[in-house]
Specification:
It is built from eight helices and no strands.
């Protein structure tokens, strides 16, 4: 039979263990919160979310943690949105510098539909305008090249088309016309070479 003094000792030991356990849990809670806040301050929202979700799994009480987790999730969403916009803007501007306006529009249209942004909208408007300007210019060049071809000025026609950016004529009637003129020029050169050879042979036979 245990003595009253021993019972008090056991109760004190149990109390101390409980306090120690509570202190350890408080330390773990504090570490979770410190890590999550440091991650948020550093813009590492994905890490903060991972830490806070781990906290919720380990501890039943989540006072203030749910709000912090929601803040981190919103921060991550905004961060990802800005990254998508930045990538689309960079790609579109690169294509526009190469005068590849159709490709730039294909990048900007879905990006703007998914993530409304004034910069994307401005670039899309600019790309469409420049594409239309390019179409008008190509039509004018097409008319001029056709006239040069009719007059037999094939070299001038080819030079005029080649002076345009390759991306602006790729897959267009102007590019097809360029191929036709080059083929015609090659035939003329072949014919001229054949005539020159025949003439030379005739002259040689006269001797």
């Amino acid at each position: 039979q245990e003595l009253p003094g021993e019972e008090r000792l056991l109760a004190l030991e149990h109390s101390m263990r409980q306090r120690l356990k509570a202190a350890e849990m408080d330390e773990v809670r504090g570490r979770y919160l410190r890590e999550s806040k440091q991650a948020i301050d550093g813009g590492q929202f994905d890490k903060a979310i991972e830490v806070l979700e781990s906290y919720q799994l380990e501890f039943a009480d989540s006072a203030g943690v749910s709000e912090l987790l929601e803040f981190a999730r919103k921060g991550l969403g905004e961060q990802q949105r800005r990254a998508r916009i930045s990538a689309s803007v960079s790609e579109a501007q690169s294509l526009m510098k190469q005068e590849q306006y159709d490709q730039a529009i294909r990048v900007l249209e879905p990006a703007l539909a998914e993530t409304p942004d004034p910069t994307l909208e401005r670039l899309l408007t600019e790309s469409r305008s420049l594409r239309q300007e390019g179409v008008r210019k190509a039509e004018a060049v097409l008319t001029r090249v056709s006239r040069l071809r009719e007059r037999g000025q094939l070299d001038e026609a080819i030079d005029l088309v080649q002076g345009m950016p390759a991306a602006s004529i790729s897959g267009t009637p102007l590019n097809a016309l360029l191929s036709e003129i080059r083929a015609e020029q090659a035939r003329k050169h072949a014919t001229a070479s054949a005539l020159a050879a025949a003439s030379q042979a005739r002259d040689f036979g006269a001797f």
